[in-house]
Design a protein that fits this description.
Blueprint lengths: L5 H9 L5 H19 L2 E4 L1 H16 L10 E5 L26 H8 L3 E6 L33 H8 L5 E5 L6 H7 L2 E4 L20 E5 L2 H11 L29 E5 L9 H16 L3 E5 L7 H16 L18 H12 L2 H14 L5 H21 L5 E5 L15 H6 L5 H6 L3 E9 L2 E8 L5 H14 L11
Parallel strand pairs: 2-3, 2-4, 7-8, 7-9
Antiparallel strand pairs: 1-3, 4-6, 5-6, 5-10, 9-11, 10-11
Helix pairs in contact: 2-3, 7-15, 9-11, 9-12
The chain binds glutamine.
Length: 483
């Protein structure tokens, strides 16, 4: 039963082949048995899960239907869940029980999902390896000596290991797409404003966006349907109708114009990944797509701009965790300053402290123009590159990451080496565009992802292209040995 996708679960439940309660019990047992190897969960919510599963079964028995009614999922541990710890992967929030549900959580609960638990993540979503969590590193089910990617590494490892069919995640600079690539999943970062950020603990507010992580594009469509939509509580939420994503999965790719940026294939890209990307291009050509070389000339400036903007916003967002308003409080403070210093020093790990310092520096009076303002200008250039490209093509295709998942610890002593791995993903966040990563093959037994980007609000186009590709390839069906 643990091999079933969300779409198959919906059919099985509708046909009364099994109940949500039965399925939930199977998955909870599987998590207890297998997760100690992976560390993909921070909290398990067994009792709540069984309660929600029974309630979903009753709703179905009363004639309700719905693709998510009775579907077991988990939430990345930065979505606030009422009465359940929301840690953000940090000692700072180890004892934080949110007084309310995030909009994503309440929408999915209303659709009938069953929450199995909260998944591990890089501390405050800062990272690409899921090694900065206060709850320990997450392991990649494809090779337990390798990282699963980050910051949504717990959601990715759990779904890849078939502990559950799908999970929520967030993407500030690649944290849905990169772990999807590293664990052979399909992950979608929606357009900025498509999914509510209310109750999603902020890292960098102008870049953060929630989205689905699952095994197939079809399942991403189902989960996104439950997450997306206008939210008056989020001032950056956009009031645009949400299309029926599942119904849009049958479009022909005949004549689809795919842009392939020449800058994507420069030095730094593993040539074995380049070859797999070429194979996926050929596959899409067979389905009728037309390939066009394009240019994104400002891509080289994106990493430096991102690593000014994201820390700047983080330094501001994280100022609320001071041991007074929110978060860990040190023991026996001598005075107020001592309380602030020690609470923050003890509560935040080294990567978070590094980013707060970089951000505070970039925003400081004498340096604001030189760093933050300059970075914002680069951001506009990056966006303009995409706008020009989308005049000529319908989607943009390239690798999700320059390398496959690295070994645990390999980049710990050199944060910049890890930052450089975000080269293909962060531009979509800077521009606010939707992006999807889907399985494209393997290098040394480790999964590789191909990334698709589309114009604003064209999530449906991305999902359709990925679905057509997955109907004609079987990479996404491969299962890691031992799981
Ligand atoms: N790796 C990037 C960072 O550390 C992106 C993380 C994310 O998307 N949350 O900022």
């Amino acid at each position: 039963m643990h091999q079933l996708t969300l779409a198959e679960i919906a059919r099985g439940l509708a046909d009364k082949k099994f109940s949500s309660e039965e399925l939930t019990k199977v998955l909870l047992a599987r998590i207890t048995q297998l997760d100690p190897q992976l560390n993909s969960f921070i909290s398990l919510t067994e009792e709540l899960a069984l309660e929600q599963a029974k309630a979903a079964d009753v709703r179905r028995a009363n004639g309700e239907s719905g693709a998510l009614l009775g579907a077991p999922i988990a939430h990345k541990d930065l979505f606030c869940t009422q009465g359940i710890r929301t840690s953000c992967g940090s000692k700072m929030l180890d004892n934080f029980k949110a007084p309310y549900d995030a909009t994503v959580v309440s929408k999915l609960a209303a659709a009938g999902t069953v929450i199995l638990g909260k998944t591990n993540m890089d501390e405050f979503a800062m990272g690409s390896a899921n090694e900065s969590s206060w709850y320990g590193a997450v392991k990649n089910p494809w090779n337990l000596e390798h990282v699963p990617g980050g910051s949504s590494g717990g959601s990715a490892a759990a779904v890849a290991a078939r502990l559950l069919p799908a999970a929520t995640a967030t993407d500030t600079g690649g944290s849905i797409r990169q772990p999807a690539a590293f664990t052979n999943l399909t992950g979608l970062k929606p357009t900025y404003g498509r999914v509510s950020r209310w109750g999603m603990i902020a890292y960098a507010s102008s870049l953060d966006q929630g989205g689905p992580l699952a095994r197939t594009a079809e399942d991403c469509a189902i989960l996104l349907q439950g997450m997306a939509g206008f939210d008056p509580n989020d001032s950056t939420s956009i009031d645009e109708p949400v299309p029926d994503y599942a119904a849009g999965l049958n479009g022909s790719l005949q004549g689809l114009r795919i842009g392939v940026p020449k800058e994507y294939f420069g030095a730094g890209l593993d040539p074995r990944i380049a070859e797999l990307i070429q194979n996926s291009i050929k596959e899409l050509q067979k389905l009728g797509a037309v390939i066009k070389e394009i240019s994104l000339p400002n891509m080289q400036h994106a990493i430096p701009a991102y690593y000014v903007i994201a820390p700047a916003e983080a330094s501001s967002n994280l100022s609320r965790f001071d041991g007074v308003r929110f978060g860990h409080r040190c023991a026996d403070p001598k005075n107020l300053e001592d309380l602030y210093k020690r609470s923050r020093g003890e509560g935040f790990g080294p990567e978070v402290q590094r980013r707060i310092m970089v951000g505070a520096y970039a925003l400081s009076a004498g340096y604001y123009d030189a760093y933050y303002l300059k970075a914002q200008k680069i951001r506009r250039l990056v966006k303009n590159d995409f706008m020009t490209a989308f005049n000529e093509v319908d989607i943009i295709l390239g690798p999700t990451t320059p390398n496959p998942a690295w070994k645990l610890g390999a980049k710990n002593s050199d944060p910049v080496a890890a930052y450089l791995e975000d080269v293909y993903t962060i531009t979509a966040n800077l521009a606010g565009l939707p992006g999807l990563s889907m399985p494209a093959g393997f290098v040394d037994g480790l999964p590789v992802g191909v990334q698709l980007l589309a114009p604003y609000f064209q999530e449906g186009r991305l999902l359709n292209v990925a679905h057509q590709y997955q109907l004609n390839t079987d990479w996404h069906t491969r299962t890691p040995t031992g799981f």
